[in-house]
Amino acid sequence: MTCTVLVGGGWGDEGKGKCITYLCYNDKPSIIARAGVGPNAGHSVEFRGDKYGLRLTPSGFFHEDARLLIGAGVLVDPEVFLHEMEYLSKYSVAERTGVDYRCAIIERKHKEQDQSSSYLSKKIGSTGTGCGPANADRVMRTAKLAREVSELEDFLTDVPLEVNEALDEGEDVFVEGSQGFGLSLYYGTYPYVTSKDTTASTAAADVGIGPTRVDEVIAVFKSYITRVGEGPFPTEISQEEAEELGLEEYGTVTGRRRRIGLFDMEMARESCMINGATQIAVTCVDRLYPQCERVREYSDLSAEVKRFIEEIESETGVPVTIISTGPSLEDTIDLRDELL
């Protein structure tokens, strides 16, 4: 039995979708549970030549024997959720997905409040998906819950009960967080943050798992760092510099161009400490070091990349176990066996 929590180490957009795809395809957990804020975060998934953009469904959906769950701490927009059930119908996702009956609901009024607030939309750079106002209503105890929405009736379940029973029976559980450490309401670059904490502890609580049941925490970092929206960015480079490096990206949910920066070692240290990371995944190595594109053995990486990986391990005190060198599942160096 292993309970693994995966979280973003930066400001989101770290390549969590690729890591989740790889890990769930190879490890085949019995349950894949979605934690995090809600549909304001998008995970990009590429599997067998097809690309998917997801906002609520767990990114490991393609593992067709897995039960897919959305924890009580996640905000649910019924329109987004039901669209994804249809969008992923070829994987029979609707038959395998459960929504905790305690999830708070994003209503149309929340999206309108989010989009009409000049403070949220312009100063903070909110995605406009209604998450902040919905979480505010949750705190004020006025939010509608999933158990009150008839369209969700067939999906309702008790996620903590399912997850803990699976662990009791010796099954593997994978918890996927969303967004990233730098957007945590508590530990991020306040006020330019999201509307709740985004660390591994909260991801576990989102799905009803106590801290003593978590075995591994994987923090995902991109080989460079990006940010969508406003807020401090100590290692940011100009868009012109980014283009010279071939680094041009756009947000999965907002479509906004991402700001680009160099790897932030100080942020990585703090992220690993507060998340209690036991492993690190480094993604998009091929984007920063094109000579390493599609490399699948650590020994074949360039000396420059090896020094970069070793520096991350030295500065954080956490082993790098997953290195992504391309978009395909096969473009992954997996060093987890070396921890055994």
Helical proportion, percent range: 25-40%
Q: What is the C-alpha radius of gyration, as a whole number of Å? A: 19 Å
Please tally the helical runs, counting DSSP H or I stretches of 4 or more residues. Answer: 11
- State the domain count: 1
Strand order of the largest sheet: 7-6-5-2-8-1-9-12-13-14
For the sheet with most strands, the description reads:
10 strands, mixed
Structure, explained:
With 340 residues, the chain is of the alpha/beta class. The protein has a single domain (3-339), classed as 3-Layer(aba) Sandwich (Adenylosuccinate Synthetase, Chain A, domain 1). 29% of the residues lie in helices and 18% in strands. The chain has eleven helices and 14 strands. The strands form three sheets. It has a ten-stranded mixed beta sheet, sandwiched between helices. A hairpin with a 7-residue loop joins strand 13 (320-324) and strand 14. Helix 3 (108-116) crosses helix 5. The longest helix has 14 residues, at 303-316. The radius of gyration is 19 Å and the shape is globular. It starts with a strand and ends in a 6-residue tail after the last strand.
